[in-house]
């Protein structure tokens, strides 16, 4: 149950990223079946309109300046590759998920790489024109400060999901 004071503290209840996919069926098979995002709802409408809402777990919005974006690309890929928007998925086994997604049609841009902030990150070009990161946290949550792994004190540390 939501209390009135909770609504003031958290005015946004959900982040939903809406992606237009020219090949809807291929994108759905990739994100739902290969990546494993459970389908919450699906709707169809007039003239062939279709949408599927997939559960991607906890959502965050990571805002980075151009220097941070370049630094992350340099560390993870060795060159500038990411467009202005990149979608990152935290997984339990970064190598296995990367292999599964490549088998499902993604193009590997950079293999799983251990970052200085102790995550294993890979980069892929995926269906629906998305450039994605798959990342596995290697550090324990207590090394980040909060039980959920969020940063609390050192805001200069690179984000853990980039």
3D structure, described in words:
The protein has one domain (4-143): 2,3-Dihydroxybiphenyl 1,2-Dioxygenase, domain 1, CATH 3.10.180. Helices cover 23% and strands 24% of the residues. It is built from four helices and six strands, in the order ααββαβαβββ. The strands form two sheets. It has a four-stranded mixed β-sheet with strand order 3-6-5-4, with helices on one face. Strands 1-2 form a two-stranded antiparallel sheet. Strand 4 (107-114) and strand 5 (119-126) form a beta hairpin. The longest helix is centred in the N-terminal third of the chain and has 11 residues, at 24-34.
Order of helical and strand elements:
HHEEHEHEEE
Average of the residue pLDDT scores: 87
N- to C-terminal distance: 33 Å
DSSP helical segment count: 4
Shape: globular
Q: Tell me the radius of gyration.
A: 17 Å
Topology (elements, then pairings):
Layout: H1 4-9, H2 24-34, E1 39-44, E2 50-54, H3 66-76, E3 87-90, H4 94-103, E4 107-114, E5 119-126, E6 130-137
Parallel strand pairs: 3-6
Antiparallel strand pairs: 1-2, 4-5, 5-6
């Amino acid at each position: 149950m939501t209390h009135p004071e909770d609504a003031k503290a958290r005015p946004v209840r959900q982040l939903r990223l809406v992606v237009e996919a020219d090949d809807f069926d291929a994108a759905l098979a990739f994100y739902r079946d290969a990546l494993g995002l459970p389908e919450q709802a699906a709707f169809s409408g007039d003239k062939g309109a279709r949408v599927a809402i997939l559960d991607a777990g906890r959502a965050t919005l990571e805002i980075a300046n151009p220097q941070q974006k370049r630094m992350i690309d340099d560390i993870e890929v060795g060159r500038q590759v990411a467009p202005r928007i990149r979608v990152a998925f935290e997984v339990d086994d970064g190598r296995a998920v990367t292999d599964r997604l490549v088998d499902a049609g993604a193009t590997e841009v950079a293999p799983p790489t251990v970052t200085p902030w102790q995550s294993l990150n890979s980069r892929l070009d995926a269906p629906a024109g998305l450039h994605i990161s798959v990342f596995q946290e290697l550090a324990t949550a207590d090394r980040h400060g909060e039980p959920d792994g969020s940063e609390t004190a050192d805001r200069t540390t690179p984000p853990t999901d980039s």
